[in-house]
Design brief:
Elements: H1 2-6, H2 17-21, E1 25-37, H3 43-62, E2 69-75, E3 78-82, E4 89-94, E5 98-103, E6 110-116, E7 123-129, H4 134-155, H5 158-201, H6 271-290
Antiparallel strand pairs: 1-2, 1-7, 2-3, 3-4, 5-6, 6-7
Length: about 290
Amino acid sequence: MNRAFSRKKDKTWMHTPEALSKHYIPYNAKFLGSTEVEQPKGTEVVRDAVRKLKFARHIKKSEGQKIPKVELQISIYGVKILEPKTKEVQHNCQLHRISFCADDKTDKRIFTFICKDSESNKHLCYVFDSEKCAEEITLTIGQAFDLAYRKFLESGGKDVETRKQIAGMQKRIQDLETENMELKNKVQDLENRLRITHVSSSPAGSVTGKSPSTDIFDMVPFSPISQPSPTPTRNGTQIPPVPSRSAEIKRDLFGAEPFDPFNCGAGDFPPDIQSKLDEMQRQRWRGSKWD
């Protein structure tokens, strides 16, 4: 980390130790990208990487692509590169893996650092564009190294191991969050496919069967096709059955049989009344004969 340490180590650092040890210092910049380098440090090494990434960026810009903006969070644990809106961590460069940092003297907006990748063990050079803060960001990374080295001497090397464990846990959490997001996207895609399949498989113009409507008394309307059912209505009462005619002759309140003109005949009266009726009929017949 010779560039960050040697250039202005006699001057006062820009931030308080608590800001870098307990929190972080945020910066906004444009991310030109990263590329593999053969050496972990060197001015010529980073200069070649800057030229390579600038040329690639000019090609993308001619195709209409803009330089992506990122947020840098610098602390004694490393440099995090995040998406500014969603705060999603794109790269987490641990401080003990950063071997070189410098700002470009020919282009005041450009600054870089070299970090060893934890998985591939390759040295990657990260290049950024900051119009006003390129030198300040480089000095802030140098201050983070100075504080981390002091903590290393005070703890006898135990603090470095603790930071390595924390960094490993943070990377594991980041991987799990990425995997969780991918699974959510897959589930959403499957739900959309099932919904489309269900809609396309439904027959066109099909009408869902409905239960028969009821009147204002909650009664099912009579249909000559349907047979009477003893099923109770929705209000809990049952439709009373239609009374059937009985062969037994019923009597009124006084014990007399009800008059039925259809069943009335000569044999239905008592004998004494019937004889008087016959006599009256004969007299009427005789009177009509004499006349």
